Amino acid sequence: MKIDSHQHYWKPERNDYGWLTPAAGKLYADYMPEHLRPLLQQFDIQKTVVVQAAPTAAETVFLLDIAEYEVTLAGVVGWLDLTAADFRSQWLHFHSNPKFVGIRPMIQDMPSEWIMQDKVVDNVAFLADNGFTLDFQSNPRHLPYLVQLMERVPKLKAVIDHLATPTYATRKLDSWASYITQLAEYPNVMCKLSGMVYGSRIPGWSPDAVKLFADYVISAFGRRRVMFGTDWPVCLQYATYQEVLDLVDFMLGPDWTQEERDDVYGLNAARFYGLTLS
Length: 278
Description:
Elements: E1 3-7, H1 33-42, E2 47-51, H2 57-69, E3 73-78, H3 87-95, E4 100-103, H4 118-129, E5 133-136, H5 143-152, E6 157-160, H6 174-184, E7 189-193, H7 207-221, E8 226-228, H8 241-252, H9 258-273
Parallel strand pairs: 1-2, 2-3, 3-4, 4-5, 5-6, 6-7, 7-8
Helix pairs in contact: 5-6, 6-7, 7-8
């Protein structure tokens, strides 16, 4: 079974995205299950994990409402305020829904050290104690603080989105690689092979340049701790859906067994998020 571990649904009229304005071009439109379903059918992808795109609890409700009727949607990574005094009661409320499988705090828009606030660390520790997952859409500047977080909360189940968005065109691994190695030392941390077409219009970007970074991630985490994601519809700014899938396949190479491919294309995500696939 193929599972896209990272895609989005949104409606601009909901008006809580902040970043989603007419300046976003083709992304400033409705992207809902009826728009994705034909692509899933065409490319034989049976299930998806939808990831929040707005920093509001209303976004989590919106996505869980979609999960009530959309049979391809296996899990929702929503948003809750990790700094809120009532965070734990909010989480308990949403946790009663089996499709609620993770939280993403959108740290890419936060100061680098935001994740290390005491109240955030305390709430992350609460999630870790309950075996719940966090997605991190980080940039390289956040990685040293994610290492610090894992030192404080080593049981946390976390996944790094989009390889932490390295600067592919430079072809320099530098400190990014050092932090990736440190994060990979925690067996409950994974990484998504997603968002890799970002920057494809920047001079110096190429599939070979991306593969340098993807190979490092795969080597550091191992083939059972990386997962495929399209980042649809964000990916459409840079590539067609077919090109996104071709790029992921290029990252795997001819030496991957069918079992390993099945893992990265779905089973790793199912294990990490605890998805119910029936």
